[in-house]
Protein 1
Amino acid sequence: MESAVLKIENFSAFFGENQVLKEINLSIPQNRITAIMGPSGCGKTTLIRCVNRMHELIPDARVSGKIFLDHEDIYATDPIIVRRQIGMVFQKPNPFPMMSIYDNVIAGYNLNGVKLTKGEKEKIVEESLKRAALWDEVNESLHRRGTFLSGGQQQRLCIARALAMRPAVLLLDEPTSALDPKATSHIEELIMQLKDTVSIILVTHNMAQAARVSDFTAFVYLGELVEFGPSGRMFTAPKNKRTEEYLSGKFG
Amino acid sequence: MIEKGTDNVSVELRQQLGLLTDRSTEDFWVRIHKRAMAGWKFGLSESFFRKTLYVAGTFVLVILIAIFLSLVVASIPAIRHFGVGFLFGTTWDPVRGEFGALPFVMGTLFVSLLALAISTVFSLSISIFLGEYFRGGVISAFITSVIELLAGIPSVIYGFCGLFLLVPVVRALEIKLNVAPYGVGILTSSLVLAVMIIPYSASIGREVISLVPSDLKEAAFSLGATRFEVVRKVVLPYARSGIFAGILLSLGRALGETMAVTMVIGNSNFIPKGIFSPANTLASVIANEFTEATGRLYLSSLVELGLVLFMVTTVINIFGKVIIGRMGMEDK
Amino acid sequence: MKELAIRRRIIADKSFKTIVVLLSFASILPMFFILFFIISKGISVVDWTFLTHLPKPVGEIGGGISNAIIGTLMLIAVSIIFSVPVGVFAGVFLCEYRKGSFAYFVKLAIETLQGIPSIVIGIVAYVWVVLPMGSFSGLSGGVALALMMLPVIITATEETLKLIPDSLREASLALGVSYPRTILKVVLPAGLSGILTGILLSVARVTGETAPLLFTAFGSPFMNFNILKPINTLPLMIFNYATSPYTEWHTLAWGASFVLVVFVLGLNLFTKVVTRKWKVQF
C-alpha cells in the first residue's frame, strides 16, 4: 500500500450557495504523481486550491470536511504555514516581473523575511534551478529580470520558485496548457524527475498528458470523485462507466 | 552531478547518490525549512493591515467633511449677521463693516461665462481637429503636447504675462474706443482665463468625439455627406453630452481660478458695469483682502465667500462627472 | 442646379476644415508667446548670483531668489511627507475594497476634493493651522499643498494597482506570504512607476501654486529653514514682485518665472521618462 501524504476526507467546497465539490474522499500517495482530470468546470482546480487554502481567498467561499497533510489538519493550521509546505504552479507562468531570476527563486524566503546568509541563498537558488532543469540555461544571467525567458522557461522558473521552499506537496494547475508542445514535453520530463523528493498533484484536462506522466489518476466530474486508481489501469480498463465515457470523448 | 539517463538506471543512481552524498544537503534543507516555518510570527498581522487600509479610506472622507465644516463654522459670524441677504448685498465696504457678495458673484459670472464662451470656440475646434481630422500622427502628437504644456503652466505665470503683455494691448484698445483706459478688467481677465481653460474641455471633447462609432459616420459618408455635414449632423449630436460635460468641467475650473484673474482684474469691489470695468471675483477678492482682514466679521465674510465658491464648484464638478460617468456606461 | 448646391457644400466643407485648423493652431499660439517672453525676458536675469542670493531691498540693484528656491523645495518636501503615505494607502484601499459601497463614497470625496478651488484650500489650511498656531508658517502651506496633492496620488495609485493582474498576488500568496507583505512587497513595487507618476505630477502641479500659500506660507524676504515660520516660494515671489510698482522687481520676477517654468516643465518631462523606463509589463 502506498503511504499517503495527503488525506482528503468528506470534503466539500461551496461558492456561496453553489456546491462545487461534493464529499470528496481521496488519498494522495507520497512521492508519486497523481493526476486529477475531468471536463472543464468539474471542480478539479477548486480541489487543489482547497488543498493550499487559496480557495478561501474568494469572498463567499466555504468548505466542509477535512484535509490532512501528514496527519495535520490543514484547516486547523495557519494558512500561511500550509502554503509554505504545499507549493503551487499556475496555468499561466507568473514569475515576479520586477525581480531578477535569482530573486524570483528565493522569493519565498525574501518576501517572508526569513534571514539567510548569501551562501545559503546561493545554494538554494542553484539547487532549485537544477531540480527545475533550468540551471544550465540561466546560470549566467541570474541577476537579470526573467522577462527574456520563453514561456516554458518561465514556467520552470515558477517551478524552481515553488521547489525552493522544499514543499512536501507540489500542486500543478494545468502547468503546460499555455505552452507549446516542446516546452510541454520538457516540463513533463521534469515533473517525472521531481517525484523523488516531492509528491505531485497534477490537474490537467489533457488525458494524454495524464496517461503519460502520472502514476495515479483521479477522475472528477461535476464535483464528485468518480474514480481513482493507478493510471495504467484507469486508462485501459476503467471501472466506472462515466470514466469510460469521458475517456472515449463522449463528453467534456 | 545527477545525470538524466534512461529511467531505470538513473533512478538507481539517484538513490545511491542521494544516500551517499546528499546527507549534508538534507540537513541544510531541514535547517532552512525550520527557519522558514518559524519566521512568520514576526510581521504585520493581516487584520491590523486591513484596518489600516480602512483608516486611510476613512481619513479621506473625514478630511472632506472637515473641510466643509471648517468653512461653515468660520462663516457663522457672517451668516448670522447678514443672513441670506449676504449673497445679494451690493456693497462691500470693510471700513463701514458692510459686506455684500453681489459684486463678486457678478464679477465671477461675467468673467467665467465670457471666458467660457471664448474658449469653447477654440476648444471645440481642437476637439474636432484631434478627434476627427488628425487622430494620430505627428501633428496630433504635437498639438496634444502643446495643449498639455498649456495646462501645466502655473496660474501666476499666466497672470504675469497677462499683466505685461495683454493689459497694454487692451489699454490701447480702450483708448481707441474712448473708454477709461484701465487695461485691466473683465475683458482682460476673461481672455487670460479663456486660454487657461482650453485644455480641459479640449481633452474631454477630443475623447468623446473620437469615440463616436465609425459605422455611424460611414453610413452618413456613404450617403454622400461631406465631412463637415457628418461632423455637424452625426458626430456633434452624438458627442453632445460629453462635450457639455467638458464645458462644465472647464466652468468649474474657471470659477475657482485665482491668481491669473487677480492680477488682471483690477481689484474693484463694485458691481461691474461693462466689459471694460475693473472688478473682482469671489476668488480674487479673497486673495486680495484675506491677509488684511481685520475683525471677525470681515474675515468671516471672506470665508463665507469661500464657502459659496466651494459649493458652487462642487455642484458643477459633480454634475459634469455624473454626465461623463453616464456617457461611459452608455457607450458599453 | 444640383451642381451648384454640391459645389456650395464642398466649399462649406473645405472652409470648415480650414477654420478648425486655423482655430486649433491659434489656440496654441499663447503657449509660444508665453514661453517666448519668459525666456527672452528671464534668461538674461538668471545667473549664479541670481540663484544663490537673497532678494535685495527696494531700490537696490541685484539680488536673487535663493530663499524662494529653498522655500519651494522645503514646501514640496513637507507636502510629500503629508500626502504620500496617506494617499498611497488610500489608493490601496480603493483597489482592494473596490466592490464595497464605502469605496464609492470615498471616491466621491476624492473627486470633490480635487475640484475645490485652491484659494478655498488655503482658507481651510488657515483655519486648521494658522489660527491655532497664531502665525503664518511653511507648515500650513505644506498642509494646503498636501490637500491638493492627495486626490492625484490616490487616483494614480488606485488605477495603477487595478491594472496589476491577480496572478501576481496569487503567486505571492501561494508561497505562504501574508497578505500585508504581498501588498507591500509585491503589488506596490509592481505598480511603482504609476504611483511615482502620480506623485511627480502632483508635485509639478503644486510647485506652481500661489493662491493657497497667500495666507499660509505667506512669503518672506529672508532665508528661512524653520518650517514653523513664514516661507517664500517661487510663485509667491513672482506674484509679489510682478504686482509691485518697482521695475527692478519686475525684472527679478521674469527671472523667477523662467526658473519656475523650467522646473515645472522639466518635471513633467522627467515624469514621462521615468514612467516609461520603470513601467512593468504584464
Note: Chain A has one domain: 4-247.
Protein 2
Amino acid sequence: MSGISRRKVLIGAGAIAATAAAAPILAACQPAKTGGSGKVVVMTDPNEFNDDDRKTLEAATKLKIEVVASNLTTLYAMWAAGNPPDVFRVQAAGVPQYISRKMVKNLQPYFANSKLLKPDDLAPANNFYKWDGKTIGTGDLYGMVKDWSPDFTLYAYTKAFDDAGVKVPSDTTPLTYDELRDVAKKVNKKDAGKRVYWGFVHSNNDGWIDRTAMNMLAEKNQTLYSADFSKLVISGNPEATKVIRYLYDLAADGVNQTPIDPSPNWMGADFNEGQIALLQYGYWFSAMAESDKTKGKTVFLPAPTWAGVRRDPTMTATGWVISSQTKDADAAWAVFEQYMGGKPAQDRAKSGWGVPGLKSLYPQMPQESAFQKQVQKVLQGELGKSDFILQFNPYIGEETFATSWKKNLEPALKGSISFDKFVQNIESEVNTAIADGKRIIGG
Amino acid sequence: MAGATHVFPQAWPRSAAWRRRGFRRALTFYLLISPWLIGFVLLGAIPLAGAFVMSFTNYDGLNLDYLSFVGADNYTRALGDADAQYALGRTLLLMAFVVPVGLALQLALALMVNQKIQFSNFFRTIFYLPYVIPVVASVWIWKIFVDPTGGLLNALIGTVLPEANIRWLVEYPTAVLALLTVWAAAGGGMVVFLAGLQGIPAEYREAAMIDGASRTQVTRYITLPLLTPVIFFNLVTGIIVALQILVQPMLLSPGILGLNPGTVPPRDNYLYAVHAYIEIFTKQLFGYGSALLWVLFAVVLGLTVLLFKTSRRWVFYGVEP
C-alpha cells in the first residue's frame, strides 16, 4: 500500500468529483454539426426518412443532406450549443412554442412562390403551422405536415370482443366516450393477475393526454387554458374537470396502461400482440395494425364523441419546419419542398402511413386489401370532421402537461393523493411552467 | 559585485544546462498530460463555468434573444422546490443503501478472487463483466429479468409460489434500481480492491500467521487497516456516483426503453438528477436546471469534505504526505 498516499487519494477524488459533477452539464453541451451552403442538416425520424429519400432529395436539389435522428433532447442540446439543424421534425403541440420563441422561419414567401406546394392544395392539418402572432390556425405558414391522420379513431381487436361475448362497435355509428368506457370495461381482461386484454388504450400512453382532453373539451367550445394561455384551468372549469375525471377514471378502472399497470412495450406493439381490445390511434397505424396475430381480426372505427359534436382532427400534425438560424434558408427550403411535394411525398402517400399533406395526393392512399378498403371507408367519413385545430399553449413545451400528468397519476392511483390533489398538482406545476415561459418570452 | 562577476562565469554554464534540462522535462511533462488537460479545459472547466453563469440566467436553451440575468432567483427557487427536496431525499436513501452494500460486495468479491484458487481469472472476468456492459444493455437485462410475465425472477419464485406475479418495477422500483446499481458497479470496485489487496506485502500476513493469528484475525487486523485508503477512495467515488444517478431510473421506467423528455420514472425512483433533467429538457429551464446541479455539487462537496474530515480517524496511510 505504499503507493497510495493521502495526497494522491485527495487529488484523485477531487478530479473525479469535478468530472462527475460536470457530466450532466456536458451532456447538454455537446457540439453539433452545422448546416451551411451546399449542405443541409435535417433532424428527422430515420423511419420516416430512409436512405432512398435522402438520395432522391440529394439528386433533386444537388445538395448534400446530413440526417440527425430526431430526439427532443438532442434538438434542445443543439439549440443550446447555438447550432440547430437547418430543418427539423416537429409535432403540432410544439409549433406555437417554437414560433413564439422565434426558432422557426416564416415560410409564407416560399409557399407563395412554390410550384410544388400550392396553398389551395394544402390539407387542413397544415393549419397547425399557421400563426398570426397570437393563435394557431390563421396567418402565415411556418411549416408543413409530412402527412397526418384524423387521430381520434379507434382500432378494435375483434377476438377480444368475441372472448368477452361483446358485439364489436359499429364502424358507421360513432361511440360516445361513455359508451366507450362501458365497452372497455367489458372487454378488459386479466387472468390470474396476468394481463390478457387492456380494454381501451389511448393518448400514446398518456404522452398526448392533454391533446385528447383538449379535443373532448372543444366539443363544448371549451379549452384547458384561459383565453390568453396564462393559466391552466381545470378545477375552475366544471367541463374541464369532467373531462379530466373521465380520463382519470379510465386509468382507475384499469382499462388503460398506467404507471401502476404498465406495459414494457408501446401500445402499438401491444395491439399487434393481440393484447389491446380498443386502441386509439389515427389512420397512420392502419399500415401496421394487421400483424400475424391481428390480421383479419382488426376493424377501424370512427372517433368517439364527448358531447355529440364530432371532431376528429390530427393531434400530432407531424411535419417539418426550417430553423430561423439556418445559414442557408434557400437550400433548406429546396430540401423541404422536395420532401413535402416531390417523389418522397408520393411514396409516403402510397405507403398508407398517413393522409398526405397535399389533397391532390389523397387518391394515392392504398385501397387494395379488404382491411385497407374498410379503413378508407371510415377515413372518408372522418376527413370531413378533421378540419379543426387544437390551440396549444405557446408558453410551455409539448411534454409539460403530460409529464405532470404521469408524475401525479401514480400516487393518485395508489391512493397517496386524492383526485382533487391530483388536479391541483397538475395545475400548479403547469401554471408554474406557463409563468416561466411568459417571463422568458414576454406576453 | 566583483565577487559576483567572478563567480558568475563559473556558475552560468551549469545553470544553462540545468535550465535546458528542466525546460525539456517540463515540456515533456506538459506534452504528456496535454490530452487530458485540453480535454478537461474544453469539456470540463469551460462547460462548468458556462453552467455556473447560466445558473444566474433565465436561459431556456432555445433562444438567446430572451436571455436575461435573474440574480440568485434560481438558487432561491431550488432551495424551496418541494420536488427537488423529495428527489434529494430519495437519492440520499438510495445512496445509503447502494454505497455500503456495494462496498461490502466489492470487497467480498476482491477477497474471493484474491485467493489462489482454480479458475480465479475466470471468476475475475465474470465479476468484472457487468461493469463494462453499457448501461442501456444493463437496464435491458434487468427489465427482462424482473418482467412480471416472462421474467426469470418471477419464474424462480413461481417454482415455490406458483400464484406469485410480482410487478417488480411497479411495486419495488427502488429495490430493483438499487440492486441494478450495486450489480453494475461491483466489478469496477472489485478491481480497485484487488489492486489494494495485492499491494499489501505478504510478509505482514505471514508474520501474523506465524505469531498464531487466524485467517479472520489477519483480515481484521492486517488486511482491512491497510486497505482503508482503498475503502476510502471507493467510498468517496461511490457516493459521488450514487448522488448523480440519472440514466438507470429513466430507462427502468415503464414503456419503451429510452431517455426522452416525457419519460417519468416511478415516484419512488424520482431522483435528484431526474428532477434536474426534467426541469432542463422537458420544461426548458436550462438556467434553473443548472442551479439545481450546482446545488447538487454543493451537496457532493459537503459530503466529500465531511468524509475527508472523518478519514483522519479511520484511514491508515502507509506513507503520509
Note: Chain B touches chain A through 77 residues (CB under 8 Å).
